[in-house]
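Much of what follows relies on a compact textual record of a protein's fold. A record is reproduced here so that you can trace the correspondence yourselves:

. . .
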Amino acid sequence: MNNPNIVFTAPGVAELLDKEIPKNLKDNEVLIKVMKTTISSGTERANLLGDPNVHGRHAPSVNFPRQVGYSAGGIVEAVGSNVRSVKV
């Protein structure tokens, strides 16, 4: 498994999936190799249960799958052509 991700694929279902690492970034994207991440028990529980309020302005029209990892730190590996605030 090269890129393991915890993904909530349906209400009450969490799976460990190998997600593809993007080969070509969009102009405003940043690729980060995550070194540490925080899991918030409240947010992840809400994601697991399908709580629509987890996604703020997108609620209540959110669907599955849902992804963990919104609070992470790592190394910038690549940047899109319009990114100026961080560098590899």
